[in-house]
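A student in our group prepared the protein record below, which I am reviewing. This is what I was given:
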Amino acid sequence: MAKWLITIGIILVVLGVLWPLLGKLGLGSLPGDFRIERKGFTFYFPLTTSIIVSLVVTLILWIFRR
């Protein structure tokens, strides 16, 4: 359990450091990321970004598991 927590912590730190770079690459404003803006209300659902992040994290965890 401790190994998993350390791994997840390292991944979160790396993502936190790389977040400005990922923003410049367009992550968060991809086609398939839904943004609904109304007067006094904004709803944002990053579907495509969530799928890409999930695939990357799955790949990283799969590599660590081997």
Summary: The two ends are 17 Å apart (CA to CA). The beta strands are 33-38, 41-46. Helices lie at 2-24, 47-65. The chain is about 65% helix and 20% strand.
